[in-house]
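Review box. Two proteins, two foldings.
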Amino acid sequence: LAVHIQTSRALMVISLLLGFFGIIVSVVGMKCTKVGEEDPVTKSRIAVAGGVLFILSGLCTLAAVSLYATQVTYEFFRESTVPINARYEFGSALFVGWGAASLTVLGGSLLCCSCPAKDRRGQQYYRQSQPSTAREYV
């Protein structure tokens, strides 16, 4: 196969692996799971790591699909003896790939937003006692 097809294939396999590990890490980092540390700061950092893996996965997908689209465009406009009706064109798979890459990057970005604010790190929330309703008469 051509070099651009082999490169796109390798990038898509890398993207699949990064997405798989991103799913596992993100599930571990969710607040509703009992897996991992009980500290909410540590769990949010794990979720951010999953978000970074999703962003990398989306960028690999975007690079693979765009590389293939660039080659299709180059072949289409190149002067050749192949008639114009027999040349490759963009297919629906390219648009699905661009959409999937965009949604994966968006989802990873949302996971990265779950990082706690710097002023709240390590701060514990305690329930305050309710004021008593009894009044003292003096």
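Next protein.
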Amino acid sequence: MGKAQKYVLLGDATYPLQDWILKPYQEDANLTQRQLRFNYRLKRAHSVIENAFLRLKARWQILLKCDDCSLELLPTLVLACCILHNICEAHDNPFNEEWLEGTEPTELPKPCQPAPAAMEDGRAEQVRELMCQYFESCGES
């Protein structure tokens, strides 16, 4: 869209809108078709991320038992699993669907209540609007 953007994290409605947290438009009867499509695409992107984490945990089941390792080791362990996982995926190392049997999708921790409007960043709406335009220009896929 002709404007350089930073990376953003995907959040849900409970997170404050920030220029680095992309969240859906609030679901109500006033949403335009464009905003509904944006929300749909954001949900699809989020499901891809959830599936990637599910496959990561299924392939490296040590990640399911991280409560018995030291906190200092944890970031290195997760990073090593991510790197090895990406190497396996890049080289078409077969993923055994049976590995998923011991792995359940888990709800990631998130705030219990929506963030107050005062926490929202005014510039963030411009970022969301730009992403909304971008998603629309990509067409449906």
